[in-house]
Write a structure and sequence with these properties.
Layout lengths: L1 E2 L7 E2 L4 E6 L3 E4 L5 E5 L9 E6 L5 E7 L9 E7 L4 E4 L3 H14 L15 E5 L2 E5 L4 H11 L7 H10 L9 E4 H11 L6 E3 L3 E4 L7 H16 L2 H20 L4 E2 L4 E2 L1 E2 L32 E3 L1 H20 L3 H22 L9 E2 L17 E2 L1 H5 L6 H16 L12 E2 L23 E2 H13 L3 H17 L8 E2 L13 E4 L35 E5 L2 E5 L11 E3 L9 E8 L3 E8 L7 E9 L4 E7 L18 E8 L4 E11 L7 E8 L6 E9 L16 H16 L2 E3 L6 E4 L10 E7 L6 E9 L4 E8 L3 E7 L7 E9 L10 E2 L3 E5 L2 E9 L3 E8 L1
Parallel strand pairs: 1-3, 2-8, 37-41
Antiparallel strand pairs: 3-6, 4-5, 4-7, 7-8, 9-38, 10-11, 12-14, 13-14, 15-16, 17-18, 18-19, 20-21, 22-23, 24-35, 25-26, 27-35, 28-34, 29-33, 29-35, 30-31, 30-34, 32-33, 36-37, 38-39, 39-40, 40-46, 41-45, 42-43, 42-46, 44-45
Helix pairs in contact: 1-12, 1-13, 2-5, 2-13, 5-6, 5-7, 6-7, 7-8, 11-12, 11-13, 12-13
Length: 851
C-alpha cells in the first residue's frame, strides 16, 4: 500500500493499493480519463479520513480528485503515474523463473555490453539510410521470437516494414536480409536464373528457394504488430502488400500444386531449407540443397506450409474486415476454408498430419528404411494454434502423449523436429542432421512451446504444465541459463559395439612422395620445395586414438606415399578413385593440404555405391584439415592433429585426421572418389581406413540449429497465453480473455501482468486458490473496456456452485460486498471452466466456488 501526498511523484503498478487522506468525495480517473473509483464520505462525515483503492485501468497519469469536506476547505487534486511491465510470480517460484529464463534467452541475441537493458536482443538493418530493428533477420525466426518478445520489446514492426519496402514485384517475400559481405554467396547461388536474391546496396536480400512459408509468416507478423499496437492506420497501409504476398503463393509454378490445389515445396524435414541428396535432387552448381526448379524438382505437399497459409488467410480476413474491405475479407476466409478442406482430404490421417505427400509419384527416395508414413513432424505442434478443429487438436496432442509414454533412452522430451528420425543424414552431408540431432530427431524447445500452448487451449492443461516444467528443467541445466533451439533427441542405451577397422592400401594409387626432393616417377611433397616437407612422417602400419592406419613406404613404392589431387589440371589429377568393395560405416583419413582455399573447400570424399547412387562428404579447411606447415587444428570428436614433427627448415609441420560418416551405411560401397576442391588447393591423402560403424561419442545435451531466442519466444507465449491464460480478443487488450490455469500446475497463488511493450495495452491479475474452501479468487484489471474471466477448476471438480463478483467502480461506495455474477460453464475435454464477463476500467474480483 502506498500513501499519496502532494509533495512527491508516485509511480505505481496495476492492482497496487493507494491510500489518500480525503475530506469529501474521492474520484479516481485512469490514463484515458475514465473514472474507475468513486467514494462518497457518507452523511454527517466531517474532517479527513483515509480512503484506499486498488489501481486499475489504462496506464499513464491517473488523477485523484477530492471534494471539500463538510467542515470547509478547498477541493484537492493529486496525480500519480501508472506503469506496468510483463511478469509472472507464483507461490512455488517455478514459473517466475521460467519467465526470466525466456527473457534471458530472447535478450542474448545481438546483445552488446553497451546496450540499454531495453535494447538487448534487438538488432538493426540500415536500408537507404533508415534503420529497421529486428529480433532476427529471417522473417520465420523473427515472427516466432516476437510471439514472446512482444511482452518485452516494441520492435516487432521493423522487419515487416523493411520487407514491405523491398517486396518483389510479384508479391514474393524474402526469407532474410544480410549485410553485403555475408550476402555474396547468395547473389552467386540464388540470383540466377530465378531471382531469389537481390542486391540492395548495403545489403543482400535472399529467398531460400525451397521455402514456401515466408508469405504466411509475413502476414502473421503484420497481424501480431497490429494486435500489439492497436494501430489501425498502420495496419490498413500494410493490407495491399499482404494480399499481394498471399496471392503470390497461388500463382508461382514453383509454389502451387495445380494437381492438389495446395502449396508445394521440395522435400525437406518439416519446413526446413535443405533437401536430401538423393536421386531426385535437381542439380545446381551452387546451393544444391536449397535450390528448386519448377520443372526439374520433385515437389511435395507439406502440410505445415498449408496450415500456416490458411491461418494467414484467417488473420488477413480479420484485418481486411476491420479496414472496411468486406468483400476481400470474405474471399480470404473462403480461401482458408478451401485450403483446409483439400489438405484434410490429402494429409490428415486421423491422428496427425502426414509429413509429406509426393506430387510426382516418380520421385525416388531412399531414407534407409525409414517409415515416412509414420513420422510426426513438429509443424503438428504449430498447427494446434492455427485454427484447426478441436477434434484434430485433441488427436495431435494424444499422439504426442503416446510418444511421451515411450520415449527413447534419455530423451529430453517428445517435442521432436521429426519422430522417428530418418535413418540417414542424407539431408546434411556435414553431419548436423545425423540421427537424433537438429532437424533429424532433435528435441526442440520451440516445438515444446507450441505443443504446450495448444494443450492448454484444448483441454489438456495438466499436460501443458508438465511440458513447461520439463522445459524449465532444460533451462536450469544449461550453463548459461538459456533455452536452446534443439537438444540431442536420444542416446545409445548401453555401451555401443566396438568398431571394426580395415586399412586401405593406397600404395598402387599413390602419386606423391613425402619429401620435397622427389624420386624419379614421383612428385615432390605438395610442391613446397626448400626441404619443407614431412619426410619424417612415420610410414607403414601405425595407429592414432585406436584407429589403425597403413601409410605406403616411399622407399618400397617408387618414392610415392600419398594420393594427391588438385583442380585445374597440371601434374596432379583432379580426382582419384579408391576401390572399397564393402559396406562402410565411416572413413578415417590421414590427410593434409598445401594451402588454404578461398571457399574453404579443400576436397571431397564421394561415396560411390554399388547400386549406382552416390553421396558426398566435404573436406573443409580449419574443420577437417589445415596446411601441413605450422599445422594447427583444434581437436574435436571427428578431427584433429594426428602427427606433429619438424622439417629441415621449420618446426611444427603436421598431418591431420578426420572421420567421415557414411550417409548410407546399409549400401555396399564400390569406391570412394577423392576429388580436389574448386579453388586450386592441393589435397593429399596419406591413409584411408574403413570402420564398420561410425564412432560413438556421446553428444552434448545441446544440439545445433536455429537461434535460441525463437525457443524463448514460443515458450514465453505458452507461459503467458497458455498457463497464464491471457489472450487478446481484439487489439491492445481492448477485449481480453483471462483464463488462469494455475490449478493444472498445482499452484495456489500467482500474479501475472501481460503488457504489450509497443503500446499501453495490458492485463494484470492475481490468483488465489483455497482448496479447503473449494474457492478460487481472481482479481483483475486492464487497459481495455471488457474481459471475460474463465476460471479453470481443479482436476476432479464436478461443477461450479456459484460465481460472485466484487466491483471497484463508479457509483459504488467502497466495493466491499460481493454480488452474484452471471456465469457460464465451459467444458473442454475433461476440463471445466467458470466464465464470468467483467467490465473495465477498474478492478474486479471474481470468486468461484466449486464441488
Amino acid at each position: 500500500m502506498v500513501m499519496m501526498s502532494s509533495d512527491r511523484e508516485l509511480t505505481v503498478s496495476p492492482l497496487e493499493t493507494v491510500k489518500v487522506a480525503a475530506g469529501g468525495a474521492v474520484s479516481v480517473c485512469d490514463g484515458k480519463g475514465r473514472e474507475y473509483f468513486r467514494s462518497e464520505p457518507g452523511a454527517g462525515a466531517a474532517g479527513r479520513r483515509e480512503v484506499s483503492f486498488a489501481v486499475g485501468g489504462a496506464l499513464g497519469r491517473h488523477t485523484v480528485r477530492m471534494g471539500a469536506p463538510e467542515g470547509g476547505g478547498a477541493p484537492e487534486e493529486l496525480s500519480f503515474l501508472v506503469d506496468a511491465k510483463s511478469g509472472v510470480s507464483d507461490s512455488g517460484g517455478e514459473f517466475g523463473e521460467l519467465f526470466r529464463i525466456c527473457e534471458r534467452t530472447m535478450r542474448y541475441r545481438y546483445s552488446d555490453p553497451t546496450d540499454t537493458p531495453e535494447m538487448a536482443g534487438v538488432g538493426a538493418i540500415t536500408h537507404k539510410g533508415v534503420k529497421y530493428l529486428n529480433f532476427v533477420v529471417w522473417i520465420l525466426d523473427h515472427l516466432h521470437t516476437a510471439k514472446g518478445f512482444k511482452y518485452l520489446s516494441p520492435h516487432a514492426d521493423g522487419l515487416v516494414n523493411l520487407l514491405k519496402e523491398i517486396q518483389r514485384e510479384d508479391g514474393m517475400i524474402w526469407s532474410f536480409i544480410y549485410g553485403k559481405n555475408a550476402g555474396y554467396y547468395y547473389m552467386s547461388a540464388y540470383e540466377r536464373p530465378y531471382g531469389y536474391a537481390v542486391d540492395l546496396g548495403d545489403n543482400v536480400a535472399a529467398r531460400q528457394p525451397v521455402e514456401n512459408h515466408c508469405e504466411a509468416n509475413y502476414v502473421e507478423c503484420v497481424y501480431l504488430v497490429w494486435q500489439s499496437t492497436g494501430d489501425d492506420a498502420w495496419m490498413a497501409g500494410m493490407l495491399d502488400s499482404c494480399v499481394k504476398a498471399l496471392d503470390y503463393g497461388r500463382y508461382d509454378k514453383a509454389r502451387w500444386s495445380e494437381r492438389f490445389g495446395l502449396l508445394k515445396k521440395g522435400y525437406t524435414i518439416d519446413s526446413w531449407d535443405f533437401q536430401p541428396g538423393d536421386a531426385s535432387l535437381a542439380h545446381f552448381d551452387l546451393g544444391i540443397k536449397q535450390q528448386i526448379d519448377h520443372e526439374r524438382t520433385k515437389f511435395t505437399v507439406f502440410y505445415g506450409d498449408n496450415t500456416g497459409y490458411a491461418y494467414a488467410c484467417d488473420v488477413l480476413a480479420e484485418m481486411l474486415a476491420k479496414a472496411g474491405r468486406a468483400a476481400d475479407a470474405r474471399a480470404f476466409a473462403d480461401r482458408a476454408a478451401g485450403i483446409r478442406e483439400r489438405l484434410d482430404a490429402l494429409a490428415w490421417n486421423g491422428r496427425f498430419y502426414t509429413h509429406r505427400v509426393e506430387e510426382d509419384e516418380s520421385a525416388v527416395r531412399d531414407f534407409g528404411g525409414t517409415d515416412t508414413a509414420g513420422q510426426v513432424s513438429f509443424s503438428n505442434c504449430y498447427t494446434l494454434n492455427r485454427n484447426c478443429t478441436h477434434e484434430q487438436a485433441a488427436a495431435i496432442i494424444r499422439t504426442y502423449q503416446g510418444i511421451r509414454a515411450a520415449l527413447p533412452h534419455r530423451s529430453p522430451g517428445e517435442f521432436y523436429a521429426i519422430y522417428p528420425p530418418f535413418e540417414t543424414d542424407v539431408f546434411d552431408e556435414g553431419g548436423a542432421c545425423a540421427k537424433w540431432q537438429y532437424m533429424n530427431g532433435g528435441v526442440h524447445a520451440h516445438a515444446a512451446g507450441e505443443l504446450a500452448r495448444g494443450a492448454f487451449e484444448h483441454g489438456f492443461e495438466g499436460y501443458g504444465a508438465d511440458i513447461l516444467r520439463r522445459v524449465l528443467g532444460l533451462g536450469k541445466e544449461d550453463a548459461d541459463g538459456f533455452l536452446r533451439f534443439a537438444y540431442t533427441g536420444a542416446y545409445e542405451d548401453g555401451a555401443p559395439p566396438a568398431q571394426k577397422f580395415s586399412t586401405v592400401d593406397l600404395a598402387p594409387l599413390a602419386n606423391m612422395g613425402l619429401s620435397s626432393e622427389a624420386a624419379e616417377g614421383s612428385l615432390p611433397w605438395l610442391f613446397d620445395g626448400l626441404k619443407n616437407d614431412i619426410r619424417r612422417f612415420p610410414v607403414g602400419s601405425w595407429g592414432h586414438k585406436g584407429v589403425p592406419y597403413l601409410v605406403a613406404d616411399p622407399a618400397a613404392n617408387g618414392g610415392k606415399a600419398a594420393v594427391a589431387v588438385r583442380a585445374g589440371g597440371g601434374r596432379l589429377p583432379g580426382s582419384v578413385r579408391v576401390p572399397i568393395g564393402s559396406k562402410v560405416g565411416s572413413l578415417f583419413a590421414l590427410h593434409s593440404t598445401g594451402g588454404r582455399s578461398e571457399s574453404g573447400l579443400v576436397g571431397l570424399h564421394r561415396f560411390l555405391y554399388e547400386d549406382g547412387t552416390e553421396a558426398t562428404k566435404a573436406v573443409m579447411y580449419g574443420r577437417d584439415v589445415t596446411n601441413f606447415w605450422f599445422s594447427e587444428l583444434r581437436e574435436s570428436d571427428r578431427s584433429g592433429l594426428a602427427w606433429r614433427g619438424d622439417s629441415d627448415v621449420a618446426y611444427g609441420v603436421g598431418v591431420c585426421w578426420a572421420e567421415y560418416a557414411n550417409p548410407f551405411p546399409e549400401r555396399p560401397v564400390e569406391a570412394v572418389e577423392v576429388t580436389a576442391g574448386p579453388d586450386g588447393a592441393s589435397y593429399a591423402l596419406l591413409a584411408l581406413t574403413v570402420a564398420d560403424r561410425p564412432s560413438y561419442r556421446e553428444p552434448p545435451l545441446e544440439s545445433t540449429g536455429g537461434p535460441d531466442n525463437w525457443s524463448g519466444g514460443l515458450v514465453m507465449a505458452a507461459l503467458m497465453e497458455g498457463l497464464g491464460g491471457v489472450k487478446d480478443k481484439g487489439t491492445a487488450y481492448a477485449d481480453a480473455s483471462i483464463s488462469p490455469r494455475w490449478a493444472a500446475a498445482g499452484v495456489d497463488s500467482a500474479s501475472l501482468t501481460a503488457r504489450y511493450a509497443a503500446s499501453g495495452g495490458y492485463v494484470s491479475y492475481r490468483y488465489a486458490h483455497d482448496a479447503d474452501a473449494r474457492e478460487i479468487t481472481v482479481t483483475a484489471t486492464g487497459s481495455g473496456d471488457s474481459a471475460e474471466v474463465r476460471v479453470l477448476l481443479p482436476e476432479g471438480a464436478r461443477c461450479v456452485v456459484s460465481a460472485m463478483a466484487r466491483f471497484q467502480g463508479t457509483g459504488r461506495s467502497d466495493g466491499a460486498g460481493y454480488a452474484p455474477a452471471a456465469f457460464r460453464t465451459d467444458r473442454v475435454e475433461d476440463s471445466t471452466y467458470a466464465a464470468v464477463p467483467i467490465a473495465f476500467p477498474g478492478v474486479t474480483v471474481v470468486k468461484v466456488t466449486y464441488e
